[in-house]
Amino acid sequence: NDIRGCSRGSLIVLEGLDRSGKTSQCGNLLAYLQGKGFSVEAWQFPDRSTSVGKMISAYLANESQLDDRTIHLLFSANRWEKRALMENKLKSGTTLIVDRYSYSGVAFSAAKGLNIEWCKAPEVGLIAPDVVVYLDVPPEKAAERGGYGLEKYEQLDFQGKVAEHYHNLLDSSWEIVDGSQSIESVERQLKDLAMHSILTCQRGKPLTNLWS
Ligand code: NYM
User: Fold this and answer.
1) 168 contacts: CB under 8 Å, gap ≥ 6
2) 45 lines ligand 1 (CB under 6 A)
3) Cα 61 from chain centroid?
4) Where is the Thymidylate kinase-like domain (predicted)?
5) Number of domains in the chain
6) Are 73 and 44 in contact (CB under 8 A)?
7) Is there an atom of ligand 1 within 6 Å of 159 CB?
8) Domain harbouring 41, CATH code
């Protein structure tokens, strides 16, 4: 089979509350894996560069108002518009480190009171991550970290609800990392998890789709 010639990359997703440290850790992990000579890219959702992404960005900045279901579907569409590229990259051997994915989509919308199954439905058929790392930081602690900005959702009570919904989504593909530890310690655990996932994919682990 063609796996020998070109082993696939791994889809590594980082999830967590706002100010959980995901974004800096994604950057560190990217630099580490590049240094090791892997083909790797860092992605993030929402991808604000597309036209759908610009609508999302305006909503988050409170520059536009959208019904809860409408914005939910836009976040999902923003992942769908990247699905083909994602599959190509992974199949051609590039590992993707992704800052937020479908779990953010479900956790944030469910925290507004939308039905969880309804929230999951548009995500079905997107590529399933090989590993989801949840950076676990208590909402109170996240809020202390330099405070929240002015974007929608950046309030303590709302983040508490998001945390509850994240915990409902946990399954066997998740790795929970205590985000209250030192940056170095979190970094070390992420490197180990990423290396393990990359090796498993190189050995021929098949790509699958959500929601599995
Ligand atoms: N967010 C992100 C959602 O509500 N649904 C989604 O599907 C995604 C990907 O957007 N507060 C929320 C979580 C964040 C906000 O993300 C912007 P970031 O990582 O701050 O750019």
Assistant:
1) 110, 116
2) yes
3) 20
4) 14-189
5) 1
6) no
7) no
8) 3.40.50.300
